[in-house]
Amino acid sequence: MTKTRLLWPVFVGFLFGTLVYALGFFAKTALGRWCFKLFPENGLFLLSFIVLAIVSLIILTLNHIPKKWQIRLTFILLLGGLGIFFDYFSLQYSFIAEKLPYLLKVGLLNTLWVSALSIVIACFIGFIAAIARLSTHGFWVGLSTFYISFFRGTPLLLQVFLIYQGLPQIGIILDAGLAGVIALSMGYGAYMAEIFRAGIEGVARGQREAAIALGLSRGQTLCRIILPQALRLTIPPIGNQFLSMLKDSSLVSIMGIWELMFLARTQGRAEFKHLEMLITAAIIYWVVSLVLEIGQNWLERRFKSNLSKL
Length: 310
What we know:
Elements: H1 2-23, H2 30-38, H3 43-62, H4 67-87, H5 93-133, H6 138-153, H7 156-166, H8 176-201, H9 205-213, H10 218-248, H11 260-270, H12 274-308
Helix pairs in contact: 1-3, 2-3, 5-6, 5-8, 5-10, 5-11, 5-12, 6-8, 7-8, 8-10, 9-10, 10-12, 11-12
């Protein structure tokens, strides 16, 4: 059993090394260029041997560490693989380093404020629409249902065009930033309405009945009993919606707003270095999303711990 555990990682590493030698994989990467610089004639053989050793060592390590560290190591390996993939494009890192501060200072800042303001307004709109959807009066139910149906059933890009280019035709001219926030807020407000409605209905009916038996009004029952419990159920989907909005905020670039995607396209087009800027923008979006995911997980744990103390 011990020999098998030692031999099969070496065998897999040998297969990878053979593929590298036969097909020339990784030859154009930084590691490949270093190998050919050391040994111009046998650089591919050295690269194959290094790949064999690395793959074998990785498999052996994964088999002898706890699951938590297996996950982390796998994440790091995939991150390294992504870096190798990007390195194949022969990117000019000096150009990226030159433009990165501008992308962060202007593009990312505009993306964050558009997304943050839009998600706050969308939550407010969604909460109002959810309460109307749960109303006992048919008018409010019909109004909220129509709003949710229209904005969920049409593309967000179309809504952006309707608000930014359609409203001026009836005499309503909006600033590009304001039009973008309104479009994102209205579009995501429809999804937020369904999230809030599902969260409120997810609270056990017995909670409402107990609150009424204690003499609480409908408003007190909603604010003190229903919403604190519903919020715990809605945090994950609200966090997902904010992550989606962070990426969909790139749609407002068609209005000329200097957000991250707009600057990545224009800066790359100006010097014909599209890949450098697009890959940089992708990494920035990803890093911000990871930070937001960490914050979302912290909020979920906090609400769970607070409810367990009740």
